[in-house]
Amino acid sequence: MDIIKKKTIYLLSENFVEIDEEQFIIISDQEIRLDIPKHRTLYINSSSKRAALTAEQPANIVSAVFAIWGNEPTVVEEEKEVEEK
Predict the structure, then answer these.
(1) What are the 10-residue block averages of pLDDT along the chain, 85 residues in total?
(2) Whole-angstrom Cα distance, residue 45 to residue 81?
(3) CB neighbours (10 Å) of residue 47?
(4) What is the pTM (predicted TM-score) of this model?
């Protein structure tokens, strides 16, 4: 009995993507989805989250997302100001 994980794009826009991960077991050459909650990850189209997406997701997911997002981020992250005392 093998357990496999499958990732799918749940929702994709120019500004963000949500990726679902489900787990399946294989019994007698049939995939059976495990009855556990899906794990969903959100990435916004910013410089840092684009890098995180590339590092954390498989190449086929990254390629599909970047086909919609293009080469430049659409969301600018606000820098946190650090107060000096």
Answers:
(1) 90 97 91 91 97 97 97 85 59
(2) 22
(3) 12
(4) 0.82
